[in-house]
Amino acid sequence: MPSDPLSSTLAALAHPTRRAILARLAAGAATVKELSTPFRMSAPAVSRHLRVLEGAGLITRSREGQWRPCRLEAAPLREVCAWTDEFRPFWNRDSEPLDTWLQHLRKKATA
Amino acid sequence: MPSDPLSSTLAALAHPTRRAILARLAAGAATVKELSTPFRMSAPAVSRHLRVLEGAGLITRSREGQWRPCRLEAAPLREVCAWTDEFRPFWNRDSEPLDTWLQHLRKKATA
DNA sequence: CCATTATTTAGCCATGTCGTTAATTAACGA
DNA sequence: TCGTTAATTAACGACATGGCTAAATAATGG
Q1: Do residues A27 and A21 lie in contact, with contact meaning Cβ atoms separated by under 8 Å?
Q2: pLDDT digits (tens, 9 = 90+) for A20-77
Q3: Which of A13-17, A74-78, B40-44, B94-98 is predicted least confidently?
Q4: Angle made by CA atoms A24, A29, A31, in degrees to the nearest 5
Q5: Does B66 lie at the interface with A, CB-CB under 8 angstroms?
């Protein structure tokens, strides 16, 4: 499993539950209990999702008495957006025409 | 494993080799062979990465004689950027102050 | 000290990933 | 038809994910 920062971030986001957790945390910090209830998921399951998010630097957790409030850390999302942004010129256009591929072949032939 | 479109896209992107393949395809279509050489990876390995990318709708493949040229399909990246964009207000600010959490506790106490 | 609440850890199981090599299928071209 | 090249599939191994329940760890508050 790749462990570079961007890969960790993307892998963490590649699960609907974890994205929903981040969306929830955008509205304010929350405890594990508060998160597990709406997602109809056991506390251990949520705890593990949180560990993944923490590993990706997408949340931080602190100790507040017996609670472990989670807070959103959205900075890694900037890198994700920056990466996709590189492809912005391609978002709206169809895949390149067949011509390009044929030119490519022709170039190899002459080489 | 989640199979919704956004999760598929993010999972496909969560591997440096696959991101590098997309970056390469931005410069034009390429065959499996052309992709496997620079990545010092066996053709089967690349073939499977391509399958993942295809499953996420990030590339399309056609048959051109004995070659299977891959072309970039960047549309799904738009959705990724759109999702992260929702968090743009949080990108540059520190995690919410502790105050918010304390208010949160106080609210529960009075409720 | 004991009961309660919050959270994590430990097992379990099924399934997916990611690389390899070896074998198979598809198409070309003399 | 035969040999070559391109690409996929099959099979393997090591390991991660994602859910569960049950048990262990913290901290609170009588």
Answers
A1: no
A2: 999 999 998 999 999 998 888 999 999 999 999 999 999 999 988 889 999 999 999 9
A3: B94-98
A4: 90
A5: no
Nucleotide nearest to A43 (CA to C1'): C7
In chain A, residues with a C-beta closer than 8 Å to the C-beta of B7 are 14-16
Strand spans (E) along chain B: 59-61, 70-72
Buried b (16+ CB within 10 A) or exposed e, A38-76: eeeeeeeebeebbebbeebbbbebeeeeebebbbbbbbb
pLDDT confidence band for B111 (50 / 70 / 90): very low
Spans of all domains in chain A: 5-110
Q: Could you tell me which residues are beta bridge partners of residue B61?
A: B70
Asked if residue A69 lies in contact with residue A31, where contact means CB atoms within 8 angstroms, the answer is yes
Distance B44 CA to C23 C1' (A): 13
| Single-letter amino acid code for the residue at B108 | K
The CATH number of A5-110 is: 1.10.10.10
In the numeric block, the tokens 């304010």 are attached to A28
- What lies within 8 Å, CB to CB, of B30 at 6+ separation is B24, B69, B70
Q: In Å, what is the CA distance from B46 to each residue of B10, B58, B59, B90?
A: 18, 15, 13, 37
* pLDDT of residue B87 exceeding 70: yes
The answer on pLDDT for A104 being more than 80 is no
Residue B83: what pLDDT? 97
